[in-house]
Amino acid sequence: LQTHPLERSQDSDRTVSGSVSTDSDHTPVRVDSQDSQVSDSEIVDNRAWPRQNSLSMREWDIPFDELKMGEPIGTGHFGTVYRGNWHGDVAIKVLNMNYMDDDKTFEAFKLEVAIFRKTRHENVVLFMGACMKPPRLAIVTSMCKGMTLYTHIHLCKDKFNMNKTTSVAQQISQGMGYLHARGIIHKDLKTKNIFLENGKVIITDFGLFSVTKLCFANRKVDGLSIPKGWLCYLAPEIIRSLRAHQKPDDEELPFSKSSDVYAFGTVWYELLCGEWPFKGQPPEPIIWQVGKGAKQPLANLQASRDVKDILMLCWSYQPSERPDFIRLLKTLEKLPKKRLARSPSHPIHLSRSAESVF
Question: Which GO terms label this protein's molecular function in UniProt (predicted)?
């Protein structure tokens, strides 16, 4: 495997308009449902489920037949997203039952729904209910009416000025800080799961890794299917846990609040640079380098030291050295306006950008 020089990790040197971005990838990764760390008052014992939760869960149980299904508007790790109607426009996320083949996984789904129903935040998609009767399991949320950050950045090539970039990052930090305070780990924070509605950030698809068995046998080859850009969001401790041939009994991936912060660092980088880190590189060198603690060099990023420090902090090799979202929000709020260097022709300018890395 040929590798390329990267900066070694130096933590002291210190990122539905009507449509959901299509994840044509079905990432085969397994995640322990216990990673969704909840407070003691929110922990639900599976054995006590009927006694403790059956009544409250019925309030959120939506009969599948009440949903008016529209056209599919996206495919994700967990299944397919449909435009629909249930007392108004909604997004209906139908879970792939290939990943719900045992009682343990179904219980994990119910536990996640029990947590989702407690979420209420302006930067988090509104949970409206769930279809709880197999074989038709689904999660119903409000319909996001803007575009994803992925669409803005990677498809439309929109250039955000520094003030807007900082505003978006602050709102993501607010929403993620709220989820973490509720004991919810996102596990799949990326620009495809962040919508922008008239300048307002809406975070979607949090916690769903817990209820899906994302390890599967490809029709052509048993192996790890890696979607474009996905590796760039994974913290070193996650990268080191990946296996080329994931098996159902393999150790679960160690997602945590700190791994969410690492993923935010990549989102911050995308907002600044208009592309993923390690642009154009195949998976193998990215896995090898990130697993060892290497980071995307920032020499060509014409930004203030404060802006770069946020990246380096979020991308710290040790999870314990990454800031939480409360600290990140305070740091972002202190950023002076218009500190990012610009060229006359582009709001955000990178000299040769990340393509000069290798």
Answer: ATP binding; protein serine/threonine kinase activity
List, for residues 41-54, the tens digit of each pLDDT value: 343 344 444 445 55
Residue 244 lies in a domain: yes
For residue 282, being part of any structural domain is answered with: yes
Domain count, the chain: 1
Structural domain range at position 68: 33-356
User: CB under 8 Å to 250, separation ≥6 — which residues?
Assistant: 30, 215, 243
* Annotated active-site residue in 61, 89, 102, 188: 188
pTM of the complete model: 0.73
Question: Residue 322: helix, strand or coil by DSSP?
Answer: coil
In a domain, 60, yes or no: yes
- For the four alpha carbons of 203, 165, 279 and 308, in that order, the dihedral sign comes to negative
**Which regions of the chain are under pLDDT 70?**
1-57, 76-78, 97-102, 105, 207-226, 244-251, 338-358
309 flagged as catalytic? no
**Does residue 186 belong to any structural domain of this protein?**
yes
133 labelled binding-site residue:
no
Burial of 104 (0-12, 13-18, 19+ CB in 10 A): exposed
Going along 158-204, which residue ranges are E strands?
194-197, 200-203
The alpha carbon of residue 1 and the mean position of all alpha carbons in its chain are separated, in whole angstroms, by 29
Helix (H) and strand (E) counts in the chain: 9, 8
* Count of other CB atoms within 10 angstroms of residue 56: 10
- CA torsion angle 151 154 160 162 (round to 10): 120
